[in-house]
Fold these 3 entries.
Entry 1:
Amino acid sequence: MAAYRYLIVGGGMTADAAAHGIRELDRDGTIGLVSAESDPPYNRPPLTKGLWKGEALESIWRKTGDAAIDLHLGRRVTTLDLPSRTVVDDRGDQHSYEKLLLATGAVPRRLPFGGDSVIYYRGLADYRRVRQVVDRGGTVVVIGGGFIGSEIAAGLAMNGCKVTMLFPEDGIGARIFPADLAKFLVGYYRDQGVAAKPGEQVAEIKGAGTGAVVSTKSGLTFNADAVIAGVGVIPDTDIAKVAGLAVEDGIIVDEHLRTSMPDVYAAGDVARFMSPQLGRRMRVEHEDNALTMGRAAGRAMAGDTAAYEHLPFFYSDLFDLGYEAVGETDSRLEMVADWKTPFREGVVYYLGGGRVRGVLLWGIFGKVDAARALIAAGGALDAASVKGRIQA
């Protein structure tokens, strides 16, 4: 049995940030990391962004080994035994801990058909598989018009790949963006060479040789060398739930990122935390949260008593368009668009309960802190009074 002062379950950016957070306060305590991935921790955003713009693959590595940590790669934890402070991996090896961090992330939602013909684009292995298809001039069908679907479709098209994009909504990013912006993006993607097909729901995917045939409920059929599905993710809470930790769309943590059991912490995509700015629990699946919460969790495990009060932001690049966003960006909220140049540069405010709950900075950068301050301030604001609060 390997014994550690700190044990991290998970191998993503959160896990790496936690290891470095521990080292900021404890230079000598032993750290072990158990990850289902065969690769050491790496930056995930380049998988849909930078690597398709020419960045070198070597640039993604986070150099976790610099934190003097034992990496147990290609191993999935199957059992968490809280009374004995032990985890067991799928090889039967046991790892004991004094402090445990669950950074298990999230797993892709899967379609009820398609099997191995579908790539649920999440990790480096998926990038490598798709890169092979693109490099040999293959065609790709992307299912989903959300965050992953919109980014990977843009990245592939920028590399000369023939891309068809299928999604049931009327526009790209319809669950986040105002309807007119989402519909604008459909035309914009078509102008960039993507065959964007709104209102199409996939009914069947069948393997065909080395590729697949995708059929929609409306009767359309597409042949593809690769099918990528970006239809959302689910927090990976299985071992936490079986062990008896409090779980509700993620592992519940307090302001110090502690779970419902002593000396067990959770962070990143899997953690559901309280946002003092919004007055509600939330779970965030983006880079800023992974890095800031991971570091905070590592420091908390090593004795830091500071509360986690960070309101994470996220960002995206869509061809030559880009945005940053913070807070609740849900198209079911009241949205107020303040465009400097329609669909190119402006601010979208998300209102609920008479206050700003989220901000989308479209084509505007360096204003995230201003958006955070506006959300944290609360106060009564409506559609008439919110415009101009953040200057483009």
Entry 2:
Amino acid sequence: MFRRTFWFTAGAAAGVWATTKVNRKIQQLTPESLAAQAANKAVEAGHRLKDFALDVRAGMVQREAELGEALGLDAAPPADRELPEPRRRAALGPTPHKTTTTFSSRTISYNRNEDH
């Protein structure tokens, strides 16, 4: 008699445990729950990307300082030094690579940069 009671109780406990487990899993798979989980993951990923960007920026500043120190760029430029005159571009003329071929009454242009 004790043996039957034990197995009945063990079976009932296993059934309750399995039912609870299945119900929790079903609730996790509802569209609202999946949307909330996706939103949480997106927020976490955003925070990680922001932290990564801040770390990269801090590393860049540190490395630039190291390079500036190694190259002697930290010193202020001399006051008597003037900037060079700005360069002027020559006027643009016709495109030198334009080639045309005429077949009877049609003209075909081989200029790849020409708008069609």
Entry 3:
Amino acid sequence: MIQEFKNFIARGNVVDMAVGIIIGAAFTAIVTSLVGDLINPVIGLITGGIDFSGWFYALDGGDYASLAAAAEAGAPVFAIGSFVMAVINFLIVAFVVFLLVKMVNRIKEAAEKPEEPAEEASKGPTELEVLLEIRDALKKG
């Protein structure tokens, strides 16, 4: 059983998956910063200062100054802005992953593509054809 586990862990797929998860976690922090620090201000500018991250609806009918205040009061809320930001984060991550997969596939195709034979300098007869012609000419002569 232990040997089977060692074999499982030693396979490349498990190691690749672990590296992917670690890179993905680090990439998530970058995307969160991108959305929060760069995209949200632009969206806020376009929408007249609306901050999606603070957009919520209190289900108890209370009036709270912020999502944090509602959470502190223990009010149930629909955190619509948090959901919108999660969707934006997902779309950005999905697009970047799409671009990465597309790039990797192009690199794989280029590496697996068989080399095309070099074009002949002239379209004349091959060496074998010339030798056969010489042989035939010598037989006649």
